[in-house]
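Suppose you are handed a protein chain with no further information: no name, no annotation, nothing but its sequence. What can you learn? This example shows the usual starting point.
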Amino acid sequence: MNVKFRRQVPIGPYIADFLCIDVKLILEIDGDSHYEDGAQEHDRKRDAFLQEKGFAVLRLSNRRVLEDTDTVVTHIVECLEELGGPSPSLAATRSTLSRGERENGPSSSLAATRSTLSNS
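A reasonable first move is to predict its three-dimensional structure. Written in structure tokens, the prediction is:
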């Protein structure tokens, strides 16, 4: 099964880092600037806007993506399955992420995943 993410997609006044339109999942990869004063409040407002538009938002710390890729891929696959998307194989998804290819409402599991993966 194919799962496609588009990179740098404009949605209203914001640009989503990665969007899987089939299940309306947005992946936000947060660097250090997202942990500065005021940035988290901005992110909360942004997430609320995107959720109002029917998107689920999964925030991942840049450091976690780089240092714990297998766990990140597993959580992304779980989120895709939870949102009703196709079930990609972990190997295929991991391969896609490592090559760096471009390409409602959030549930309690997504919220827990967001919290877990954002802490680095």
